Amino acid sequence: MAVRRAPRLQAQYQNSTRPPIIDYLPHPLDLHKDDMPKPLTYVEQYQRRFSASFRDHWNWTEKLKDRTYFAKLLRDAQREDRWLGNKKVLTWQKEDIKMVYDDLVKGYEPYVASLREEGSSIEPDIDCVWREDDFLDNDGLRLKLRTAMDALRNIFFMSGEWRLTSEDQVTDFINPYCWPIVYGRSCISDTYDDIVVEPPNFKRGYYEKVLYSKKFCWLPSEFEVSSDGESTRIASYINNLALMPQERLLYPILEKIFTYFVPMFDRTLADIEGRKYMCRRVRSPPSDPEIWKLPEETYKRRWERLLAQFQRGEKLQENFDSDSSGGELEDEDEDEDPVRERRRSKPAPRQRYIRVRELATYKRKIGRRWEPPELSKSTSLKGQTVKVVVRLMDINLPPRSPNFVTRGGWMVEGVLNERIVATGIYCYSQRNIENAKIHFSVPIKENPKDKDWGLVHNLGMRADFQAVGATSLKDNRAITFPNLFSYRLDLPLKEYDRPGYCKFVIFYICDPGHQASNLQSIKVPKAFFIAS
User: Fold this and answer.
1) Who's near 343: CB < 8 A, 6+ residues apart?
2) What pLDDT does residue 122 have?
3) Any residues with CB less than 8 A from the CB of 426 and at least 6 apart, and which?
4) What CATH number should be reported for the domain holding residue 427?
5) pLDDT-derived band of residue 182, with 50, 70 and 90 as boundaries?
6) Quick one: where's region Disordered (predicted)?
7) CA angle 363, 32, 221 (to 5 degrees)
8) Domain with 448 in it
9) For residue 498, what are the CA distances in angstroms to 396, 399, 402?
10) Is residue 21 in a domain?
11) Is 157 a domain residue?
């Protein structure tokens, strides 16, 4: 059973230049079944994985012009993707190659080129995720951030206020769970006369316990973004960073960093509003498809001819149909003369076959291409006062722990009290870390139709979530993604005999239409708590 959609909000913006927000943006904890995407087929999974991997190459727009190089990457991808579990299946047919290549040439490349002309280095990553490399290389801001964070570490270590979690691997210098709003205790009066924050009145049985908190709520800060998006001012204090030396040290830096995040947040919020997370380029195949066997040697010859056609820029015509491919799966053996068999000096090598099953149905001959988001005032942060939760975090990997994986598996930030809709992560310093990744998954509609449903979608038959891809967490890279995506960090050491670390600045964006308590109305929690 799904929680009802959030109520409509219109009166709140009657006196604002911002268009009224009709509904809350989708949130994973009250996502209606109609807002859940259908599962990705295995075909679309490897298509998206290849596209994202190719676009993660340096200067990929130029490499896209080299068809020989592109074919080499296709050949490498086919070797990995042909194994689905313990079965060898047919992958990368002519429709797949044409669809992925057209997606890059006619979808991603023109949009990235237009951003470059505007002086922006933002790029789309996997669907609904945006990234920017060399994020803080201008004006020495990255050096200022490192210097300020070193000073903050000294303050925390000397005062004993630093906090370690996850077996002493994660150091939180600003943690939203520390000194949040405590319902019935947090107040705004210096004399403690008025208790202003009461527990929310949610009467939804099970959901009251799981999706909401009646004890506490994160404290978002208010960030005022200029109408042109070129500057930001912190209108309130930042929770756990409210002392005057800390304000003078870090507030100007965080204001500039958030300003650089605004264009990426605008695109992520536009993707959410446009329901891009539900986009599927290919459909699931029919429930009772034809299954046949294809001799592996025949497949290799046809595969090489297909790549040759692609490299020459010709129309892709090579097929892997069941016609003359080896017959149906049931016809495994043929009658042979036993006398002739004994006379053979060497036994003939056993023919190997590839199991061929229709794994996807294309919506058109080349499928649906990726399309850029439609930016609008309803989701833009420009000219708005944004409720933001700030987090400063270090992840340290000693040699005894050569890999860090998010504790507890997949994570979603906050509950419905805060209604976080988007997250921005900036890795400002990294050492001795190789191939760091952030993996994403989404809730899906469970709709098994036949015994091969799990094979077609690379899922268990009762899966509630599906992985949709991963993004590299490179040094000096910033990314934004919707909170609809559960995420998991994977940070392996490059050299196991040396320690390593990743240092992050994280912004959580509250739903613009959600009336959450903010720090303009609540005094510094640490100094204004009532004893029980």
Assistant:
1) none
2) 96
3) 135, 136, 257, 261, 477, 478, 504, 505, 506
4) 2.60.120
5) confident
6) 317-348
7) 110
8) 124-178+220-279+376-516
9) 11, 6, 9
10) no
11) yes
Domain-embedded: residue 16: no
Of residues 416, 415, 413, the one with CA closest to residue 424: 413
Q: What is the mean pLDDT of the chain?
A: 80
Helices 67-81 and 296-311: crossing angle in degrees, nearest 10, is 150
Contact 277, 335 (CB under 8 A): no
Q: Are residues 145 and 275 in the same domain?
A: yes
Query: Is residue 191 pLDDT above 50, yes or no?
Result: no
Residue 355 is assigned to a structural domain of this protein: yes
Q: How far is residue 443's CA from residue 347's CA, in Å, rounded to a whole number?
A: 52
How many domains are contained in the chain?
Answer: 2
- Residue finishing a domain among 362, 387, 404: 362
H-type alpha helices, 350-450: none
Match 């009250």 to its residue by tokens. 30
pTM score, whole prediction: 0.85
**Do both 411 and 303 map to the same domain?**
no
Please check whether residues 353 and 384 belong to one and the same domain. Answer: no
For residue 118, the model assigns a pLDDT of 93
Together in a domain, 129 and 256: yes
Q: Are residues 98 and 129 both part of a single domain?
A: no
Interval 95-114 mean pLDDT? 95
Question: What pLDDT does residue 160 have?
Answer: 57
pLDDT at 6 over 70: no
The reported pLDDT for the residue numbered 159 is: 62
Give 406-418 as a DSSP string. Answer: -TTSSB--S-TTT
Do 89 and 147 fall within a single domain? no
Residues 256-267, mean pLDDT to the nearest whole number: 97
Of the two residues 313 and 523, the one the predictor is more confident about is 313
CA proximity to 35, closest of 212, 277, 207: 277
Query: 67 and 154 in one domain?
Result: no
Residue where a domain stops, chosen among 328, 362, 396: 362
Same domain, 271 and 411: yes
Among 276, 300, 359, 290, smallest CA distance to 42 is for: 359
Query: How far does CA 269 lie from the centroid of its chain?
Result: 13
Among 266-270, 328-332, 418-422, which stretch is predicted with the lowest mean pLDDT?
328-332
